From TrEMBL:
Gene: eutB
Protein name (database record): Hydroxyectoine utilization dehydratase EutB
Entry similarity comment: Belongs to the serine/threonine dehydratase family.
GO biological process: isoleucine biosynthetic process; L-serine catabolic process; L-threonine catabolic process
NCBIfam families hit by this protein: ectoine_eutB (TIGR02991), PRK07476.1 (NF005680)
Keywords: Lyase, Pyridoxal phosphate
PANTHER family, per database record: L-THREONINE DEHYDRATASE CATABOLIC TDCB, THREONINE DEHYDRATASE, MITOCHONDRIAL-RELATED
The protein's required cofactors: pyridoxal 5'-phosphate
Length: 321
């Protein structure tokens, strides 16, 4: 199948490599969403993964594949930065997470709590990224990007293997979509094992870079805007090599949600299913509630992360967005 640079074999190898470092997360039925969607809906509870998001799978696989390096680095302050810090510590490697002056103290503390150095540099994400590149160039660090990297994609693909084992008759998987590492890996695994399975990507209407790029026919930049699905923000990289072509080839449908629809998803998952998730992880539920996604056969929603500010979560449950 497709896309040459990542294969099902790579995903199987990643699964064996990271087995001791990641949890197998549970799936559970969602009765309320099933009624609304017209067919069985399953929740893949990956927000219960170590570090609170699936990103540990890709980071752990990439770190485990490294040869002799001085340490690892990246410029992500979100779930990828946490995952990389955790994976590096598990392998006894130094991790330097480069951040700009705009990043709030609580995020710096969270990185430090994972045993990594948060290096504050420059006034923008671009300048922070420059420092990560300098560490790679001059100090022997490995720069592990959040999605456009074969080992990261293969690691995220292990989630697809798990889903097909847990829900063997799955007809479709709804995948939160940003840079596309998650969707590319899950789709490659799932379609290799069952070519008929449908892969539905879901992003927010506000600033979805992959959606804009697919429409333009090449990677394009979009203006970054505040969104409840903050883990879905950011660009796909103007020199994207892997995830853009893989998503273009493997995704069957793309759904975009308003902020209200994402908030409704967060609320429903908390109140009806007892799951606390961040905005990015609530898009599948939000799409069903909005009437934008139906279940023609068993449908699996990936709850991709749990990292939401508790005060924010409480406000959303009270009906504020
Ligand atoms: C990173 C992330 C996504 C999107 O993953 P991509 O590989 O960038 O498409 C979705 N949900 C959560 C919680 C994330 O941290």
């Amino acid at each position: 199948m497709v896309t040459g640079m990542v294969t099902l074999d790579d995903i199987h190898a990643a699964r064996d490599r990271i087995a001791g470092m990641v949890r197998e997360t549970p799936v559970k039925p969602a009765p309320g969403l099933s009624r609304l969607a017209g067919g069985p809906v399953w929740l893949k509870c990956e927000h219960r993964q170590e570090t609170g998001a699936f990103k540990l799978r890709g980071a752990a696989n990439a770190v485990a594949r490294l040869g002799d390096v001085a340490g690892v680095t990246t410029a992500s302050t979100g779930n990828h930065g946490r995952a990389l810090a955790h994976a590096a510590r598990a392998q006894g490697l130094a991790a330097v997470i480069c951040v700009s002056r705009l990043v709030p103290q609580n995020k710096l503390d969270a990185i430090a709590a994972l045993g990594a150095e948060a290096r504050v540099i420059g006034a923008s994400q671009d300048e922070a990224f420059e420092e990560a590149r300098r560490l790679q160039r001059e100090e022997g660090f490995a720069l592990i990007p959040p999605f456009d990297h074969a080992d990261v994609i293969a690691g995220q693909g292990t989630l697809g293997l798990e889903i097909l084992r847990q829900v063997p008759d799955a007809a479709a998987i709804a995948v939160p979509l940003s840079g596309g590492g998650l969707l590319a890996g899950v789709a490659l695994a799932a379609k290799s094992l069952n070519p008929a399975i449908r892969i539905i990507g879901i992003s927010m209407e506000r600033g979805a870079a992959m959606a804009a790029s697919l429409k333009a026919g090449r990677p394009v930049e979009v203006e970054e805007r505040q969104t409840l699905a903050d883990s879905l923000g950011g660009g796909i990289g103007m020199r994207n090599r892997l995830t853009y072509p893989m998503v273009r080839e493997l995704m069957d449908d793309l759904i975009l949600l308003t902020e209200e629809e994402i908030a409704a998803g967060i609320r429903h998952l908390a109140q009806q299913d007892g799951e606390t998730v961040e905005g990015a992880a609530a898009v599948g539920a939000g799409a069903i509630l909005a009437g934008k996604l139906r279940a023609d056969g068993p449908l699996v929603l990936i709850l991709s992360g749990a990292n939401i500010d508790p005060a924010r979560h409480a406000a959303i449950l009270r009906g504020q967005t």
